[in-house]
Design goal:
The protein contains nine helices and no strands. The chain has 183 residues and is mostly helical. The protein has a domain of 98 residues: Serine Threonine Protein Phosphatase 5, Tetratricopeptide repeat, CATH 1.25.40. It starts with a helix and ends with a helix. InterPro entries: TPR-like_helical_dom_sf.
């Protein structure tokens, strides 16, 4: 290896580290498409058969899956299951098994629907805070929502349940017992 190829190699390693770290950070932030882009660039810069190249490809598999690119994730896992590094090969086989497992059907009543809040970021601030209604009484409506409804006292159980007397007797007996024992 001559000195120029070593310099290119060290440049590639530096670029790889930048792309690899950017891909991991994007993945951890939930920016899966950006993560895929950075990790693909990192994998192109590193020898895919090296341990570090295999590690970057493992991250790429998870980014593919998170970005909804399951066929690409499975194809890459199949390659990783034949990787020269034993740890990478073992992890590739494990991930391949998980990705190819049949999806379980869950009853709808077991699931909680989470509303898509992605459109909120694109909306105007007036839309997020609530727009004024046609009658122009949005402040009054909000105030009405904050005030509690009146309570119907005929529905409230006002019968004395003797709790205060039981608690008072228990307190007197406890204090008297402590005094008698001399504690």
């Amino acid at each position: 290896m001559d000195w120029q190829s070593r310099n290119v190699s060290s440049e590639n390693k530096e670029k790889f580290q930048i792309e690899y770290q950017a891909g991991k950070v994007a993945f951890e932030r939930g920016e899966y498409r950006a993560s895929v882009k950075h990790l693909e660039a990192a994998c192109a810069l590193m020898n895919r058969t090296s341990r570090l190249g295999g590690e970057a490809q493992m991250w790429l598999v998870t980014a593919y899956e998170a970005a909804g690119k399951k066929p690409e994730a499975i194809a890459l896992c199949q390659q990783l299951s034949r990787h020269p590094d034993t740890e990478t090969r073992k992890e590739g086989k494990r991930l391949l098994y998980i990705l190819q497992a049949p999806e379980l059907k869950r009853p709808a009543e077991w699931m909680t629907q989470i509303p898509d809040l992605g459109a909120i970021a694109e909306s105007s601030p007036e839309d997020r805070r609530g727009s004024q209604s046609a009658s122009g009484s949005s402040k009054r409506d909000r105030k009405d929502k904050l005030e509690p409804e009146p309570i119907d006292l005929s529905q409230v159980n006002t019968k004395d349940n003797q709790f205060i007397w039981v608690a008072l007797i228990a307190l007197i007996l406890t204090v008297g017992g402590l005094i008698w024992l001399g504690v």
